[in-house]
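@channel sequence for tomorrow's demo:
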Amino acid sequence: METGWNRRKISRTGLTFQYTKSDKAGIKLDWNISSKHNASLRWSLVSAKQLNATSSASSLNTSDYSYDFVSKTNTFIGELQSRFSDNLSNELRLSYVNVRDRRDPGDPFPMISISNVGGGTVNIGNERSSMMNALDQDIWSLTDNLTLYAGNHTFTVGTHNELYTFKNLFIQDIYGTYEYNSPADFANGKIRRYRYQVANTSVTGDPHWAAQFSAGQLGFYAQDKWNVTDNFDLTYGIRMDIPLFLDTPTENATFNSYAESQGWNYKTNRKLSSSPIFSPRVGFRWSIDKENKFILRGGTGVFTGRIPFVWLSNSFTNTGMQFMSYNTTSTGGLSLILDPNKQADNVASLTASGTQTINVFSEKFKFAQNLRFNLGFDFELGGIDWTADAIYSKTLNDIFYQNLAYDLNGSTLGQTIPALSFDQRPMFAKRSTAGTYTGIYALSNTNKGYSYSLSLKGEKKFAFGLDLMASYTFTRSKAVNSGTNSVAASNWNFNYIRGNSNEPELYNSAFNIPHRINASVYYHKTYGRWTTTVGLIYTGSTGAPYSIQYSGDLNGDSSNGNDLFFIPTDEQIDAMPFRANVPPKGVTWTDEQKNADIAQQKANMKAWIANDGYLSKHRGEYYERYADNEAFEHHFDLHLAQKFSFRAGNTMHALELSLDIINIGNMFNKKWGRTSSSSGSAAYYTPVTYNSSSKAFQFLGGANYDMRSYSDYYSRWRGQIGLKYTF
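C-alpha cells (generated this afternoon):
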C-alpha cells in the first residue's frame, strides 16, 4: 500500500444527509400582432442538484463515493399562431434547449470496494462511473403544422425536426478501481480485481477527452380527422421519420480488418442509416348516446421514438483508439496506490498490455418502434364518471446487445463441474483471436417484447367541494433488454441471463409493476376571496421487480453480474462445492475448521431459501430475470393550500401558499411508507458468491438472512412549501 499520498482525507461513512434541490424560473411574453397573428416567447430555467449513491441497508459508502448529479436546463421557445381564414390556420414553433449535466463526486480518489462486510459491501472513494462524467446537450427543434378545415374533414400536414449536438465526457476508472473479496483480503493487500482507464493522448491530445458529435431527426406527417357522423369521428394519418447522423466515429483500421475476417458486418467508422421510418395510425371516437354518457374510443398505430443518444455516443467514445483500458484479476504484482494521478505506476506491474473496448452498431440499426392497440370506454354509472382502458404494445424494434469477443465453447456448467450436473447453462470462452479486446459490444435490434395494461378509474365531484378519485391498473411488460444503463458494456454485462448471454431470454422487464392503485380525496372551501384546499393522495403498488444472480462469473462470459441464480434443493446444496470463509487476520484454520465453516454455510443457505416466500416455491428452477417483485407498497401524501384572489383593473390575480408532505405515513411510523427503489425501476441481489479460480461457492449470510433492501431517502417523509402567483 502506498503511503506517500498526503492529500487523502478519511471520508465519513454512515448516514449522509440526502437531498434533492431544484431552482426554477421562467417568463412568457405574448404579442397580439393582429387579429390573425399571435406570437409568444418563453424562457424557463431548471437548476437542480441531487445527491446519489448514499449508504443503504446493503452498502456502506463514504461521503466521497456519493456524488451530486448537477443539472441545468435553459429552454427558449418561440411560437407564432396564424389564422389566415376561417378554413386555414398555421402553428409555427422554434425551440432551443441547452442542457448541462454532470456528476460531481468528492475529491479525486480511487474507488475501493470491499465485499462481505457483515453481509454487505463497503465502498470508499469515487464511484468508478462518476470519476469523470459530464454530458452537454444543445437541442434545436422546428415544428410547423398547417390545418385546413374542409366540411366535415380537418386536414393537418406538418413537420417536426430536431438537431442535437453532444459533448460526452465519460472516463470510468480514471483514478483506479480496486476490489477486495473481504476485509481480511483488504488488510492483507490481496486485490481481487483492478481496473484503470486512461486516454490515448497521442490520438486525443487531451487526457480528459470528451466525445463530440451531432445528430438529428426529420419528421413529416399528414392527418385527417373525419367527422363521419354527429357522434362518430375517425382519425387517420401517417408519419415519416428520418434519423440523421451528422458525424462519423473514428476509424479503427485494425479492428475493421479483424471484424471483416470474422465475417461480421461491423466497423467503427459507421454512420447511422438515414432510411425513412413510416408510422401509420388510425383511431376513432364514438359517442353512443346523445348525452355523451357513453363513449367508445380506440385506435392502432406504429409509434417511433428517439433513443437516448448517449447509447450512440458509446460508438464515438469506444472505437478502441481514444482510450486504453486495464481490467485484470491477475493482481499478484499490484499494490493499492492512493494517489489518483499515479495509477499508471500499476500498469508497469501488469503482465498484459492495455486492451481496447469496442462499441459498434449495426448498419440496419433502427430507433425504437412498437405497434400499439388501445381501446377505451368512458361512461357514467351510479353518478360516477368511469374510464376503462386497455392497451397492448408489441415491440417492432428495440435495443439488442451482444459481446462478440466471447462465444459459446460447446460445454455446459454441469459438464465443467460435475457436482453441478443439475445446472446445464452453456459455458463461454473468449475468442482466441480477440486477445486485445476487453469487449466488442455490438448494438442492433430485436422485435421480441410486448406489454399490456388494463385500467379502471372512477371520479366523483360533489357540489359542496369534495372531489373523489380512485383507479386500478394491471400491467405486464416483457423485454429482452430493458436498457437501464447509459453504457453499452453495462447494458450487456448486467442483462441477467441463464442461457446464452448473446441471445438473452424474453423475461419480465425492469419496469414490470403488475398492480397499481391510486386514490385521492380533495376538499375545496371558498369564502370570500379565500379558498382553502385539503387533499390526501394514496399510491399503492407492487414493489420494484428484482433479480437474484451470482456474484462472480459462473459461465465464463467475462461478466461478474449477469448469471441468474439457480434455486437449489437441499440435496443439490449438499453437492455444490463450497469454500471456507477467510479467517480473521493472524488466524489459520485447520481443515476441520474449514469443513465446519462450509457445513454451516450450506445449512444457512438451506434455511434462507426455505424461509423466502418466492424461492421456497421454486426450488430446482432458475430464477428468471425480474421474476418476482418486492412487497406491496403504500404511500400517502398530504396537500394543504390557501389561495387569496383579488382583482387589479380588469384582471383577476391570485396568490397561493401550499404545503405538501410527501409520504406522510413515515412521519408517524418509521416502517410505514417504505420504497423499495429510488427510481421506480428494478433491484438486484447477489447473496451467493462464485469464485472462478477455485470453482466454489460461498454463502456468508446467516440462516435468517434478509437480502431485501429499500431506498433510505425515498422511504422517508419529506415536505415542500410552494408559493404561486397567477394573473
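heads up for whoever presents: DSSP finds ten helices and 37 strands in the chain.
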